[in-house]
Amino acid sequence: MLTILLSCCAVLGAQRFLLPGIYSYVCIVPLVLAIYYFSDKSLRNTLVVFALFISVDNGSDVFVTTAGPVRYLIYLACIYIVFEHIRFSISRTIGVLFLSCIYALQTLLSEIPIDAITLSRDLLLFALICGVVCRSTRSRSFSFDIELLTYLLVVFSLTELANFLLFFSFIEHAYLSYDSVKSLVVLVPFYFIAKRKTLLAIGAVSLVTVVLIAYVTRMIILTYMGTILLFVVIHYGRSFFKMSFIVLLFVLPLLQFISDNQERLKSYKAVAFLSEVQSTKNPMDLFRRLDPVRFEETKLFFSRDWYTLLVGSGFGSGLHDKDDAFNFVSEQQTAFTPQELRSGYFYNLHDTWIDIGLRFGCGFIIWLYGYLVLQTGNLDPYRSMMAMCLLVLVSCASFTNGGLLLTALMFLVMRSPKYNHVKTSKLNDPNRLAYVS
Question: Which of 59, 79, 185, 435 is deepest in the core (most CB within 10 A)?
Fold first, then answer.
């Protein structure tokens, strides 16, 4: 009965077209169930993550969002789970405290005005870093039902596919979803890839790819495809060239089809991106043409001195556009707020390595991505699968409080030693995840 009830929640949680006044409050059901099953940590933690996923923090005046009090109750539940029964490692805590002193000093020395909203998100991020990184080995155990969450994401993705085919209009809606944590759907194909279920993995990749195209966000698609490619290169390196040839047999006809139908397909950003890649030879020109806002952000970001690039500008900081590089952005566009455009100080940046790297430094970003890339190559396919998911979440969901909390919880799942004590002889077992559930 519980599975049926949660399946209904997954379907209703995506009904932004048929049930606009109801769908954004379906998240209350798994939140209440999490309280009811409080003593069952695995189920409780999974229900809280699911509640966070189907809550709606951004509708962009097109879709209805979840009321603030409901969302913040879910956020508080997530924070409680992160810090529940935590024991700190002394050495790691000292290291993080040393970093906090550097960040605090950079904040005091910064000449850029501190933005209150950005400051609160940076403090939340730093607290979550402490909750994840500073844990002692004794308190790393984190119970979680990954199979239940994957099943619910499959149901949700199928509903999104129906939305795309039956109700979605690019002209009227622009994006199928504006929610900040929508990229969690990539867990579905990564799960089946990790289990070596070839046919199910192909089906899952096809399903999620269509959904991501409807979501329109290029960055999600790029990191999703790049992460799958990274997994293939690491785990199937010897036969990579053979697989590349097979992939090209499918990709080249696809690019030719896009080239022949550019006018009809140009409304989809993901398809337009592939068309631009095919027709542009200079990488810098391609970057400038595809996304001039990100191009100028990157130029401003790397125009700072090397020390600030390494350790960051401090909490709540932003970029100062002294030369009016963003003069082509109008207030009617959604890239920046009108206040940012008038003042020349920009805080709502569009890439993780710029948004977080600006305040926490490139050193932190290099460590974070390097760690996740290494974990993608882990012999334990469970850790590898979670690292793949986190590469997408870090890149595409870390710009909101909900995205930061979801990313932190997924980090706890991946780092839990419960999933690391599997005999090597069982690593290639198709039922591998049964040993760790």
Answer: 185
Tokens of 208: 């999620």
pLDDT in tens, 202-221: 889 989 998 998 887 778 88
Length of the chain (residues): 437
What would the pLDDT profile of 20-65 be if each residue is shown by its tens digit? 889 999 999 999 999 999 999 999 999 999 999 999 998 888 889 9
Q: How far is CA 309 from the centre of its chain?
A: 23
CA atoms of 250 and 174, how far apart (whole Å) = 28
Q: What is the pLDDT of residue 420?
A: 44
Q: Helix 381-396 and helix 362-376: axis angle, to 10°?
A: 150
Q: Which residue has the tokens 């539940």?
A: 77
DSSP state of 174: S
Long-range contacts from 325-332, C-beta under 8 angstroms, 24+ separation = 325/296, 325/299, 325/300, 326/293, 326/296, 328/292, 329/293
Residue position matching structure tokens 């963003």 = 326
The position carrying tokens 């900040």 is 180
| DSSP classification of residue 124 | H
Q: Tokens representing 180? A: 């900040």
Name the region of 216 (left: φ>0; alpha: ψ -120 to 50; beta: rest): left
**88 strand-pairing partners:** 135
> 79-106: per-residue pLDDT in tens?
999 998 888 888 889 998 999 999 999 9
- Whose CA is closest to 61, among 172, 167, 166? 172
Phi, psi angle pair for 11, to nearest 5°:
-70, -50
Residue corresponding to tokens 């499918």:
250
Largest CA distance in the chain: 62
pTM for this entry: 0.84
User: Which residue is listed with tokens 């870090």?
Assistant: 394
CB-CB contact of 223 with 395 (8 Å): yes
CA distance 281 to 270: 18
Name which of 416, 420, 434, 423 is nearest 143 in CA terms.
416
Question: Assign residue 249 a region: left if phi > 0, alpha if psi is -120 to 50, beta otherwise?
Answer: alpha
* Residue 147 buriedness (CB in 10 A; 0-12 / 13-18 / 19+): middle
Residue 119's H or E segment, with its range, is: helix 116-133
Report phi then psi at 47, rounded to 5: -65, -40
Q: 170 Cβ partners below 8 Å, 6+ apart?
A: 216, 267, 268
Rounded Cα distance between 173 and 229, Å, is 31
Query: Alpha-carbon distance 203 to 189, whole Å?
Result: 8
